[in-house]
Write a structure and sequence with these properties.
Chains A, B: One of its GO terms (molecular function) is CoA-transferase activity. Two copies of one chain form a homodimer. The first copy, chain A, is an alpha/beta fold. Chain A has a domain of 250 residues: Rossmann fold (3-Layer(aba) Sandwich). In chain A, 37% of the residues lie in helices and 15% in strands. In chain A, a hairpin with a 4-residue loop joins strand 7 and strand 8. The longest helix of chain A has 24 residues. In chain A, 57% of the residues are buried.
């Protein structure tokens, strides 16, 4: 079967998280993604990891997670020969993605205006931290910093906690998704009209747009969110919406009709709270009352009772339990690929199905410059010239 | 200027959050989105809100946030005449989006196989909670429930907190973004080949894929994340990565070279911790040591000192302060639109720029069935027939 982006070439200057996530999504649907890395050391993210631990000696799980379905060319893009190669690749590319600080690509001779001259139909996406201009132009833009400035860090947990970081790289990943959204719309438009264009995304705007519902509320309802002191699951929501301790774990109850929940809990005196305003105003107290009941049975017992009443409930899984969840197994969420150095690694599958053009994982994350010879041969460089470039430290090729 | 999706027609059966967010993104880039609502009461989300408070009497900020750039047709889709209208709209549509529980659309006669007969090139996206099949098929799928089952709820805050809900509708919104990613790739493919297709997305798979980096680590490094007990900002990261109290608020410090940070803090004895393993193992203790220093100055004072050393720092904004942040003002993040009932409302702008086909906000969220007459006239129905349909309760039209 075909893939939706088969035949599309992506020239990827991005590193760390947001850009690589975006280009990986293009690769997942069949695009040929050429990852440009620093010769020798590669993407900065290769040098960062969790727990100060590494896979197969020196491979980073952070890097490996966001760089499947790509080929790597490790090259000194400031050298004359490097520039010649980049221009040749740009001439054949459909999409360019970069996430340097604003202005860097232009200084290197690879800005939109430069590459448009070589390839007028190019779609060029620059993904920055704060925007391509403005007061924070020169400041470092990074996920946790953007969580902080965008208010996202003040939306989880309890008010008395102060800021609570969201455990995923929320802003990076949402901007990766927004970059793909804009790039694919531009690609469709180019297919119809022949016109390329420049796209500029940034972490800050994406982080705020992701909180669109909260901001709409704060700005138009004139009431500010105050996080609850209990495990109510959203600062704007009434009881019972939240997480409840059971005798062996946690049960989550989402919006559910109060009388039905009272029936499930088996204490009809709780009907005194059957009023939307009371359920909001006294949510912390009501949470405590419910939890005093939920701790008396196991999560599975409550699920059986409550699902039978079509209450909106689910159990809480720790990340380490998720791969054994029956629906996760059914959905084929985790698959294995063979990595040249690390052997079999488990990766997260493409999270949706397309009947005609399925996503596929055809490559693990590359070694640094692993595909240098292959990519340069495709451009017509001879084996000898390639050897010379390795000797002159213009490119580097790592093999397992 | 053009818009990228100008001329594309979306027939939108979705309600609540994930589906409407997806179709709003298509509308933001120029698609003509026809929102199909229940005649009379409309989208279920119109009846849900925060704080039990409403805008202009009975408008929900939750609904309003996700339904700009759409026209509404409120119609009984089970009636014979309703079905005739839906089939006519489906014949002209490019994209169908729905997020009923799996099987509902087929039972109504609007499944992919039904509409494909009418319109072979249709792109049909079904967005479910858990997947289109499997053990949780009949269970309610909702954002907080999916946060719980996917492990996302165990990644923020402190370990001793137990589950901590992420303050935005993370799973709904990420699946909205993934649906748009798949739909636009399918649209590009159709433009090249003429072939439509069926897309199936679900909240659970999107929630897990969004934690791709964490899962890659847990499954391949063989070490499980344990959340810190201090305000270290990620369970896998060492000090100083986290949030620190200052004399007037909070300062966030992301990955920064330890010697430079020690210089900024002005206590060279801290160089004893200049070791990646120590910075991870003793992160909670080190967080406390740093915070004892940061509380002695204001956030702005620390920003001045630390940004001069190119340390990765930012201040923490509460959501209510964000609209006054100078970069947010510069980015034109919030704009006003005129709503027929609520008057001027502030909305979050499209979070990126496209040089040739900019996103635009041309309509506020619609009233229930507001565009019924206009849409039915376009299909060729006479004013008299439309009046009859209103009288027979097949459609309803709300005006301000």
């Amino acid at each position: 079967m075909d893939q939706a982006l088969k035949g599309i070439k992506v020239l990827d200057f991005s590193q760390l998280l947001q850009g690589p996530f975006a280009t990986q999504m293009l690769g997942d649907l069949g695009a040929d993604v050429i990852k440009i890395e620093r010769n020798g050391s590669g993407d900065i993210y290769r040098g960062m990891t969790f727990f100060n631990q590494w896979i197969a000696g020196d491979e980073s799980p952070c890097f490996m997670a966001w760089n499947r379905n790509k080929r790597s060319l490790a090259i000194n893009i400031k050298s004359e020969q490097g520039k010649e190669i980049i221009y040749k690749l740009a001439k054949e590319a459909d999409i360019i993605v970069e996430n340097f600080r604003p202005g860097v690509m232009t200084r290197l001779g690879y800005g939109y205006e430069d590459l448009k001259k070589i390839n007028p139909g190019i779609i060029y996406c620059s993904a920055s931290g704060w925007g391509d201009n403005g007061p924070y132009l020169t400041r470092p833009g990074q996920d946790l910093l953007v969580q902080s400035l965008s208010g996202a860090i003040m939306t989880s947990g309890k008010k008395s906690d102060g800021p609570v970081a969201i455990g995923t790289a929320l802003c990076d990943q949402v901007n990766g998704l927004n970059s793909v959204y804009a790039i694919l719309a531009a690609l469709f438009y180019r297919e119809k009209t022949g016109k390329g264009q420049e796209i500029k995304t940034n972490l800050l705007s994406s982080a705020i747009a992701f909180q669109m519902q909260d901001y709409f509320t704060v700005q138009n309802l004139g009431q500010t969110f105050e996080r609850p002191e209990s495990k109510i699951g959203h600062p704007g929501n009434p009881a019972p919406f939240g997480m409840y301790q059971t005798s062996d774990g946690y049960l989550t109850i989402a919006m559910s009709p109060w009388p039905k929940l009272v029936e499930a809990l088996g204490d009809s005196s709780l009907m005194e709270y059957d009023d939307p305003q009371l359920l909001f105003d006294q949510r912390d107290k009501i949470h405590g009352i419910i939890e005093a009941i939920t701790v008396t049975k196991t999560t599975d017992e409550w699920l059986e009772i409550m699902l039978a009443l079509d209450l909106w409930v689910a159990k809480v899984n720790d990340q380490k339990d998720v791969e054994n969840d029956p629906q996760v197994i059914h959905n084929n969420t985790f698959v294995e690929v063979e990595h040249p150095k690390a052997g079999k690694v488990k990766v997260t599958n493409i999270p949706f199905t397309m009947s005609e053009t399925p996503g596929k994982i055809t490559r693990p994350s590359p070694m640094i410059g692993e595909h240098g010879e292959e990519i340069l041969s495709e451009l017509g460089y001879s084996r000898e010239t390639i050897e010379n470039m390795i000797n002159e430290n213009i490119i580097s090729i790592e093999k397992a």
